[in-house]
Amino acid sequence: MTTTVAVVGCTHAGVFATTTILREHPDWQVHVFERNDTVSFLSCGIALWAGNHVSDPKKMFYSSPAALEQAGATVHMHTDVTDVDVKAKTLEFRDLETGDTQTMAYDKLVVTTGSRPVIPPLPGIDSERVQLCKNWNDGVRIKERTQGVKEVIVIGAGCIGAELAEQFSTNGIHVTLIDAADRVLANNFDKVITDQVEDKYREHNVTLALGQQVTGFKETEDGITVITEKGEYTAPFAILVVGFRPNTDLVRGQVETLNNGAIVVDDYMRASVPDVYAAGDSATVLFNPTGKLDYIPLATNAVRQGQLVGLNIDKPTRKYMGTQATSAVQLYDLSLAASGMTQTYANNHDLDIRSTELVEDYRPAFMLTTAPVTSVLTWDPQTRLVKGAQFCSTVDVSGAANTVSVAIQAKFTIDMLANVDFLFQPNFDQPVHYVGAVAAKAVAEQGE
């Protein structure tokens, strides 16, 4: 008897779950439900697109409904799943173009419904001049709206907001960047690094309205005024990027979730109810630096978890290895990369974690050019385990974050990291690579 799988939602986790399921079980019937008209959109490229750094926006998709059909799936685009009964193993769906509603029985359910933007219940926030930055349609609107404008307000100084502000400012648009936190990228990097980023923003005439909670919005004749606790800022439009939450209302109350709605999954992507799987922004991740379940909506997590759904949907086969939430961002001439926990994260979660900072040139002084790298390593003073690292420089430091990601996952101590066999060649690094150097400094600080 043929197994029927319902995949609800198809961005990254849904695409990879679908293709992996069909690769492993080509005789299964896989139905994909997506309310939008595209799949696999790389929304991380919206800021680059707005800043004229994308060769062709159509290349921001790595799959398509046609490709999924060719792989063997039955794809229901422009279709909204309106109800799921986990116990009865049925779902209802509605064609958004015709309004027709149908019910389908399934054997296995894959919830890859992703996340939705956080939209605070503030006066005036439903204005057409306040827009989001999440999907393809948002990207199109941002690209169109920024043509010829001189002012833009960005609300939220996380990675997305930070990148938007940078791209707008380098294209001659004055940006006001607002955040309730007192630093940009406060959840991603510690102050020694964010101070450098803020200096770059000021050099590029970005107005930093930090430590300011937004209290409301007011339309003007030709723009929108954003009202905060400390002031008012006006521009033709504002972009709201203050975070994301799991889009899991369909199954909430039927499966175990975190308080924010993220579906709790085990090592094999199984939810708390048999034959229900979840992946990506709708699911929890195992955050290796703490060893606990967490919610970290990243495309990298979604891709790997989606693949694991396909590998484990028939029987438990391959365990999830967890995540270090490794990421990077380029702002002006600064390359920033991080893996694991920051000192700020540790402090906010009352964890006994220490950090070591080191600033040194990435290659020898005899070279005609070199540049300083700021390194921050976090580690546990009791176990000496590496818990995280951050890097910032005008040279590419992304590889350093990947190196530390492996170290955390492999449970390296600071002593082990300090003695890794890093290469030395003057074009690339010092006799002691800065990753090893900051680890050696941590060892010296902690003592034998």
Automatic annotation (TrEMBL):
<dbReference type="InterPro" id="IPR023753">
    <property type="entry name" value="FAD/NAD-binding_dom"/>
</dbReference>
<keyword id="KW-0676">Redox-active center</keyword>
<dbReference type="GO" id="GO:0016491">
    <property type="term" value="F:oxidoreductase activity"/>
</dbReference>
<feature type="domain" description="FAD/NAD(P)-binding">
    <location>
        <begin position="4"/>
        <end position="306"/>
    </location>
</feature>
<dbReference type="InterPro" id="IPR050260">
    <property type="entry name" value="FAD-bd_OxRdtase"/>
</dbReference>
<protein>
    <submittedName>
        <fullName>Pyridine nucleotide-disulfide oxidoreductase</fullName>
    </submittedName>
</protein>
<keyword id="KW-0560">Oxidoreductase</keyword>
<dbReference type="Pfam" id="PF07992">
    <property type="entry name" value="Pyr_redox_2"/>
</dbReference>
<dbReference type="InterPro" id="IPR016156">
    <property type="entry name" value="FAD/NAD-linked_Rdtase_dimer_sf"/>
</dbReference>
<keyword id="KW-0285">Flavoprotein</keyword>
<keyword id="KW-0274">FAD</keyword>
<dbReference type="InterPro" id="IPR036188">
    <property type="entry name" value="FAD/NAD-bd_sf"/>
</dbReference>
